[in-house]
Amino acid sequence: MHSHQTAGDVIAAQIRRHRERLGMNRHDLAAECARLGRPDLSYAVIVTIETGRGDGNAKKRRQVTAEELLVFGLALATPPLLLMVPLGTEETIPTVPSAVPRDPYTVWQWMTGEATPTLDGPLDGRYVADTRPIAGSGQTWAAAWATAAYPVSLYPELARRRERAHKARLRAALDPSAQTEYVDRLDELAQIVNDMHRASLTVPDLPTELAEDLKRLDLLDNPDQTNPRGIE
Fold first, then answer.
1. Deepest of 3, 30, 81, 122, by most Cβ within 10 A of its Cβ?
2. What's residue 3's pLDDT?
3. What pTM was estimated for this model as a whole?
4. Which fold would CATH assign to domain 7-128?
């Protein structure tokens, strides 16, 4: 039997939890939302989000939009996704109406694209990914998900390789014997940049020195698509 709790219920409970964690009342939270450009998220609106409002014998909760989720997260000094997928405080949370609740970290990985959703099951105690073909595309659902989620792995890896190359450049500037290591780190950086270009992804601007050295060493497949910037 599926839970009657919805994602909206989870968000409402987490807004209240984090508000109380910070010692904020609803007027305080409304003031923070106004500071972020949403004065319409007033005390009264926050009440209907957190508790619902009278509607005959039932309560109808005011749902939180995607934009409002971001506003509430920033107002509560909390990563917005944690309002929807709380880690460490709940055993399970709802997913979609046709599936059973799952543990929060599993759902977190789905939301961030780190893992493929497994809504079917449990079969022999296991949940499985959807293998249906998607109409007209020729792809299975799981394969289409993997394609869409591909950037999730590339951007963090780009940041790591960019930082390693930057540090190697600084070492090479002080010690000529470290030049080989710097070239190796540039080659690693170029590989991820080239992968992103092949996937038609936007590559964040690189530090000026790294971008110039990548081009000088002819390590980039599309050098004109790589823009330099200063070190932040």
1. 30
2. 56
3. 0.80
4. 434 Repressor (Amino-terminal Domain) (1.10.260)
